[in-house]
Known about the structure:
The protein has helices at residues 3-14, 21-41, 67-71, and strands at 47-49, 54-56, 63-64. By secondary structure, the protein is mostly helical.
Amino acid sequence: MTLEEAIEHCKEKSKGDCECAKEHEQLAQWLIDYKKIKERVAPMQPDFNHDEDTYECPCCGKTYETYYDGYLKKFCCECGQTLDWRVEE
């Protein structure tokens, strides 16, 4: 079972009238939170905004004025997204 399938299963069970509907609702929320955390662990390169000559977090849009402003930050200070500052050639 994939994470998406587990989330959907829990959502479906939480709509029922079984004794454990509330537990399934809570489990679905935990799995959704886990999915968000898991996605933020994978490093992503900041997006370069050519018009303003700035870099932005690909997850939340936090702006870094220059490459060097954010270069030493391994994580976005707004959302916690792991940032990959390596320059692709």
